Amino acid sequence: MIENTRFASRSELVGIAALALLLVVVLPLTLDVFRLNLVGKYLTYAFVALGLVLCWGYGGILSLGQGVFFGLGGYCMAMFLKLEASSPENTKIQSTPGIPDFMDWNQITELPLFWQPFHSLTFTIAAIILVPGVFAFIIGAAMFKRRVGGTYFAIITQAIAAILTILIVGQQGYTGGINGMTDLRTLKGWDIRPDHAKVVLYFVCVACLFGCIFVAQLIRHSKLGRILVAMRDKEDRVRFSGYSVANFKIFAFCVAAVFAAIGGAMFALQVGFMSPSFVGIVPSIEMVIYAAVGGRLSILGAVYGTLLVNFAKTSFSESFPELWLFGLGGLFIAVVLAFPNGVAGLWSDYVQPRLVRLVTPRKAGWSAPNAVAEGAPAE
Amino acid sequence: MSLSDGPISDTRRRLLMGMAILPFAGLLPRTAYAAAPPTSAVNTTGLAVTDTEVTVGILHSATGTMAISETGSIQAEKLAIEQINAAGGVLGRKIKFIQEDGASDWPTFAEKAKKLLVNDKVASIMGCWTSASRKAVLPVVEQYNGMLYYPTFYEGLEQSKNVIYTGQEATQQILAGINWITKEKGAKSFYFIGSDYIWPRTSNKIARKHIENFLKLKVVGEEYFPLGHTQFNSVINKIKLTKPDVIFTDVVGGSNVAFYKQLKAAGIDLSKQALLTISVTEDEIDGIGGENIAGAYACMKYFQSLKNENNVKFVDAFHKMWGEKTVIGDVTQAAYLGPWLWKLTVEKAGSFDVDKIAAASAGVEFPGAPEGYVRIHPNHHLWSKTRVGRARTDGQFDVLFETADLVEPDPFPKGYQ
Amino acid sequence: MLIGQQPKDFLLSVEGLTVSFDGFKAVNDLSFYVDENEIRVIIGPNGAGKTTVLDLICGKTRATSGSIHFRDRDLTKMRENEIVQAGVGRKFQTPSIYDDLTVFENLEISFPRGRSVLGALTFKRDAEVRERVHEVAEMIFLKDRLAMRADLLSHGQKQWLEIGMLLIQDPELLMLDEPVAGMSVSERVKTAELLHRIIEGRSVLVIEHDMKFVEDIAHKVTVLHQGQILSEGTMDKVKNDPKVIEVYLGH
Amino acid sequence: MFGDYTLSQLGSIFVMQGFAGLILFSVYVLMALGLAIIFGQMGVINMAHGEFMILGAYVTYLTASFVQSHLPALFSVYFFVAMALAFVASGALGMLTEWALIRHLYRRPLDTLLATWGLSLILQQAFRSIFGAREVGVELPQWMLGSLPITDTIEVPINGIFVMGLTVLITVAVAYIIFRSRWGRQVRAVVQNRVMAGAVGINTERVDRLTFGLGCGIAGVAGSAFTMVGSTGPTSGQLYIVDTFLVVVFGGAASLLGTIASAFSISQTQSTLEFFMSGSMAKVITLLTIVAILMLRPQGLFALKVRK
């Protein structure tokens, strides 16, 4: 019998190593800084997709408002950076120097109270995790305790995304409105804009991503992961086995929210600004497609799915901008109708068995480890 | 409007452009046909300049919600580039352009701007439309020392070595119009309605200060609606109750259509009720429908119906290139100025180097502008005239007023902040 | 409500239980009591409200009025998982197991430890768990199928697995909804044998149609009809009750 | 907030705001009806509903242009033809969608959501390629323009009255179809027990297709009516989808009456709030209230208590 303290099966370890090789060695060596920074930006969406694998793929909870958490994380980070960029010397042209420029444009003459703590990096980092976490907890507790799930939950999260967008845009004196927070410059005095900083931030982002992958794997291989699978399958049975189904859903939703928030914070750092265009309904649904293309049950698939869709988007929209929406729309339909397990499903159904046959032609009876199998066999 | 280039073949178009540009030839600076100076002398910073070619970037939204507005700018910039090339290019080099799609998404704008500057080494960028996209691109062009020509009338409060603002900033656009309508209509009270973002809010702030502090009149209401909002019945009811002398609007995008339709349906007759807009150009009327907005006043620096010689030729060339039915709004014209101003500045500086262009920009004159003579101010905005037009049912404006002199751009207006 | 009366003597006391769906009273003013170690069988024609009674006890359906006391705790005020943790186990009519998990994992999830979120995260598959799983697996004839995905089991095996999942919870009150329905003859025999073994040492509430099976195990039988008790008592008494005969044979 | 107005002005405010709310109400009901049928009766989340609506609007636009240039004499009545055509066009596309897409996904409601979102992207781009990115305006016949003065401060727009009348008409028709007609009985039978309905000889596939078609067709009519008050652009539909879903969910998904009640309360709240605060905040508060109520009462305003 296999110990259950491990966080990945052998084939998964190989997969993780391959991804690490790609992100840490291959891409940095082959891409110029501009493209690498682009990959870094895409990877921030992979955090969201990763969370969706846990909460949608495993927990069966489809949130169409993950942009909310991405945005909350991103805005927390951006608020810190913006304050640092709004030093009195940098903003001496304003009527009130020392406050962010958009506040000055909106006749705000002193820093609002809720902005004050964002002078502290420690507070900011805590806020990046806690604000979305607590927010997700409140939504989750309210909804799941009352057994709201499925499509209702999807619609309500969507409404929340819409509300937050309108709020951010409407309260521009405090949030920068539709322009967002732009011109973020330094982190504790370290300039985040030059090329070498971008490279460093890319690696920080990759490190965070692997941290999240590790946590996700840990959850998936714990009993909690199996309970999530069980819940998606027979919610009532889990309930009548003595588990509070709502608490497990809240947990999965909160983890997904925190992942998304870390992604958002990394986005603000790498791209140098944050705007409400990542909070709304459209980006939120687009993030779902990343997870779906990767395979909604595959943690690593989420990363590949995100990269794949974004590369396609960038290259498509460069050469055939008109066709991109057709492509994206078709992708949604194809992934639902024809490839419900996404890239990971294709890999485990077609590629891996052949690879295995190639590598171990004589070991009869050795079955291919299934990359998307829920919970590895127990014995 | 389709995004394709229209029915005219490429070669024929070039020919037409060549003919269209001839009248301009007399206005062109002397270097236009001179022998090209060596690349090493005019390009010391590694830009994409060869002995025969110079590359510039065009960065607008070809897709997404902003494509509606930005298509005109793309067309105008391409027209200007064709004309410049037909007239011999810049420092003897043909302009080649790389077009990138900002996709109505601000980070994409920043990303593509960076690509144009870092990968393609373009000598300048004609681009952006919304304030948000400009704000996203600004740090990029400043960091990589690029040159951006930005066409839209905007809120001001900005000035950069790396940007030339070819549209008007808010005080330039608004003040003359308000003065005119106050005098013309004997207005005592104003009602502001805008979309909820920085440009309408800043513009209204300036308008309010001007009305209250300088004209000593009243603003009886100020309302903002989310972008894309389509239900204006409430605010229309308020207008009916407060009966302002002038409705002052800066509603943008699709909301306009709903707003003017509902205004008309509610029985507010724009031939009797004065309405001054700073956001509706000929482009917008296309969607609103002339019959819904006829009678409204608009305050801009350019109208397609301007009768001066430059404009007649410009409109003609534009129609030949992009089809008879295309309309030309204020921003489209401002976008057309971008490549020309850049060319004139390069030739004044005798170099493609961004630093030299930035330094040489102040004082560059373009007498051939469709809107009439313009000149770059040391603050990198344009000296320009402000005009008031009245919308007709056919979607064009009757120009009723223009300022006697060029209005000085004042992006950080004292007393208006 | 019966104020002052402490229904302590019984393991389960159901009193004045009523539930209505849009005015239709599926269960109407129902009262009955189950002793420790009693095997109670509920029978009745379709639509009599049998399954609804189980739903009410385990908290799946909320009562309109009335009380359900399990020892001295009022189940009508508790959440389903709390009811389970108090010691009530429920098997559904159609086999309700986790198709995507292995037999081992199915049983392991039902093992009564680490039921909180944190507990589930830190749960260790230690010797105790393994032993218990093996023990139960042996009981339910699935010892050599532990690594198999549950959806590959036969219908009867799925029923057994679900019984095993209840067994591993070790409930004081076990509720079974038609445990032998849809089984082959041989499976049925094995199931009866299994049930005989597991009902020892606990109270059991069974819904069943198979009269031979009922006669075999029941201490007491409750006959439901249109949401109310038609008759109650030993199998012999019930069989000879004219009201029961009327209902079962009258139409 | 009331201080600036006199009593008679306040009276007029409430009458006119009430009326403005009624117009919004009509728009919501028209959009939500089709969605309520599809979501309530079939459990399918149709994210492309807004695009079906916009299709109706474009059909109206095309009809208007055609009649204007070829049959100017009939211009005053073209709208009725346009509405019928909009119904047919959106309904037909809806049935095609059901056949090609939805019927494979009845057991996977979240997947229908993603697939129909994909469809909505494709339709948006198709509209953009065919009609251009710019909004198109539909010219209305003269009699639909202007307003009826009731007192000197109270005026009612004629197209508003028209939209309201249309709403009543369509609602009654839908109620009749669902609750009185033979086909409606079949639809309800399929909703309650698909297998049994199939067993008693109801062609469930055909019922599904027609139900979906009906829902989409009503969306088309809504789009047609909508051209009178709003604009028609490729992405106009997307603006409404969340509002419309909230109306349906808030009303209690299975209830036609609930949809109407919820559309009424949401529209009145929003238009009243709009009078006293900025449009953005009015919208935020309205949506927030709905979400809060839904968290406390997830089944919506009207819901049947059923045994599950």
UniProtKB/TrEMBL annotation, chain A:
Protein name: ABC transporter permease
Predominant place of localization: membrane
Keyword set includes Hydrolase: no
Entry's transmembrane regions: 12-30, 42-61, 121-144, 151-174, 199-219, 240-267, 287-311, 323-347
Any one GO cellular component localisation term in the record: plasma membrane
Subcellular location(s) per record: Cell membrane
UniProt KW keywords: Cell membrane, Membrane, Transmembrane, Transmembrane helix
InterPro entries in the record: ABC_transp_permease, ABC_transptr_urea_perm_UrtC, LivM-like
Protein biosynthesis among keywords: no
Entry membrane topology: Multi-pass membrane protein
Source organism of the structure: Chelatococcus reniformis
Entries under CDD domains matching the protein: TM_PBP1_LivM_like
GO molecular function (one): branched-chain amino acid transmembrane transporter activity
Automatic annotation (TrEMBL), chain B:
Pfam families reported for this sequence: Peripla_BP_5 (PF13433)
Entry keywords, A to Z: Signal
Range of residues in the leader sequence: 1-34
Record carries keyword Flavoprotein: no
PROSITE patterns: TAT (PS51318)
CDD domains: PBP1_FmdD-like (cd06355)
SUPFAM superfamilies: Periplasmic binding protein-like I
NCBIfam families named among the record's database cross-references: urea_ABC_UrtA
UniProt-recorded name of the protein: Urea ABC transporter substrate-binding protein
From TrEMBL, chain C:
GO MF annotations in UniProt: ATP binding; ATP hydrolysis activity
Domain ABC transporter: 12-251
NCBIfam families for this protein: urea_trans_UrtD (TIGR03411)
GO CC annotations, alphabetized: plasma membrane
Any single Pfam family the record assigns to this protein: BCA_ABC_TP_C
Xref: CDD domains: ABC_Mj1267_LivG_branched
Record-linked PANTHER family: CONSERVED COMPONENT OF ABC TRANSPORTER FOR NATURAL AMINO ACIDS-RELATED, HIGH-AFFINITY BRANCHED-CHAIN AMINO ACID TRANSPORT ATP-BINDING PROTEIN
Alphabetical list of SUPFAM superfamilies matching this protein: P-loop containing nucleoside triphosphate hydrolases
PROSITE patterns the UniProt entry points to: ABC_TRANSPORTER_2
Record keywords, A-Z: ATP-binding, Nucleotide-binding, Transport
Protein's organism: Chelatococcus reniformis
Protein name: ABC transporter ATP-binding protein
TrEMBL record, chain D:
Protein family: Belongs to the binding-protein-dependent transport system permease family. LivHM subfamily.
Keywords carried by this UniProt record: Amino-acid transport, Cell membrane, Membrane, Transmembrane, Transmembrane helix, Transport
Membrane topology: Multi-pass membrane protein
Residue ranges crossing the lipid bilayer per the database entry: 12-40, 52-71, 77-101, 158-179, 212-233, 239-263, 275-296
Lineage of producing organism: Bacteria, Pseudomonadati, Pseudomonadota, Alphaproteobacteria, Hyphomicrobiales
Cellular component terms (Gene Ontology): plasma membrane
InterPro entries associated with the record: ABC_transp_permease, ABC_UrtB_bac, BCAA_transport_permease
Localization of this protein: Cell membrane
BP GO annotations: amino acid transport
Domain of life per record: Bacteria
Pfam families xrefs: BPD_transp_2 (PF02653)
Gene Ontology MF terms: transmembrane transporter activity
Primary localization class, coarse: membrane
Name recorded for this polypeptide: Branched-chain amino acid ABC transporter permease
